[in-house]
Amino acid sequence: MPVITCIDDLKRLHRRRTPRMFYDYAESGSYTEQTFRENTTDFAQIRLRQKVAVDMTGRSTASTMIGQDVAMPVALAPVGLLGMQNADGEIKAARAATAFGVPFTLSTMSICSIEDVAAHTDKPFWFQLYVMRDEEFVDAIIERAQKAGCSALVLTLDLQILGQRHKDLKNGLSAPPRLTLPVLLDLATKWRWGLGMLGTRRRFFGNIVGHAKGVGDTASLMSWTAEQFDPQLDWGKIARIRDKWGGKLILKGILDEEDARIAADFGADALVVSNHGGRQLDGALSAIRMLPRIVEAVGDRIEVHMDSGIRSGQDVLKALALGAHGTFIGRAFVHGLGAMGEAGVTRALEVIQKELDISMALCGERKVTELSRDNLLIPNGFFDCYS
Q1: Do the beta carbons of residue 280 and residue 156 sit within 8 Å?
Q2: What is the pLDDT along the chain (387 residues), one digit of tens a residue?
Q3: Exposed/middle/buried for 348, CB within 10 Å: 0-12, 13-18, 19+?
Q4: Of residues 276, 305, 325, 335, which has the active-site annotation?
């Protein structure tokens, strides 16, 4: 068993053990990948303020997210195709999150269905919705999430039109993969992955195949998906979904103060400052640069969460110190899943919590809920260099 001390250790194993198209799907951004890169490099510019001679006993990373107790303010973000990173990946990630005490968010574009995950977990999870043109499908999947006991709906707002990711196009990304010669040669070196996939029946988009009208196989799925993301999504349609859902609502994909104010007026329980991990609008500012502006604009009226770029417990600390009430991790736990399955997701969470705990202590804080900008050293003009 390899010694795992950081997320990069899991990332290296993920790359070695998972087919290239699925590793690249996780570890890529749109167009030039500028925003994808700056999500992490901007975090690195923010430094931590060390404090000494402070009693560090009785530390706690516990907090809440939308009223739910969490072992640390970190949720697993919705990520499509988890079941292609590792067989039954959504079930494994949900189990790891549940056991650890943090929320798991199931993507609309998951391999395992809502019903699959509900049948294999003993606590409610969150469900993420992409708004499709087919309102009948949208209404039905909301009802399925309600029936499964999902405790929050995470509504993604920044994927009305799919951003172009060059690697996915060049790799011929599909689920399951099409068995071309390059794919077969790659799969020949990924025997762990192959054995896992042979042992499961879950190899298609379980929330869609057999549920969307006219989608009964992979070929019909691909054509349906390409046409279904709704470019007409607006606040009126969001209101219809809010009313249909009737429960806890998180709006994901906010990167502008004006949009944040509308979201706060809208009655949502939380918003997520996010640029979709740099996978949509390349050239947008990093989420961490935009976070303080949005917290200042609406943080007294709505929980502000943040994702895009978090790869460590220190990144979580920085986001919380800048006003985020909670955070989401995507690639960090996907690397764990691709590397080691459920145990890898657990290890990713352990790494992040330990980094958060130790860094918090060395900053002179005992409770994660007491972090503030006083714990940071920020370059002059870092948040004001763009207008």
Answers
A1: no
A2: 789 999 999 999 999 999 999 999 999 999 999 999 999 999 999 999 999 999 999 999 999 999 999 999 999 999 999 999 999 999 999 999 999 999 999 999 999 999 999 999 999 999 999 999 999 999 999 999 999 999 999 999 999 888 899 998 888 888 788 888 888 888 889 999 999 999 999 998 999 988 888 777 666 676 677 678 888 899 999 999 999 999 999 999 999 999 999 999 998 999 999 999 999 999 999 999 999 999 999 999 999 999 999 999 999 999 999 999 999 999 999 999 999 999 999 999 999 999 999 999 999 999 999 999 999 999 999 998 787
A3: buried
A4: 276
- State pTM to two decimals: 0.95
Cα–Cα distance between 333 and 343 in angstroms, integer?
A: 11
Neighbouring C-beta atoms of residue 27, cutoff 10 Å: 17
> What size, in residues, is the chain?
387
* Residue 325 among the catalytic residues: no
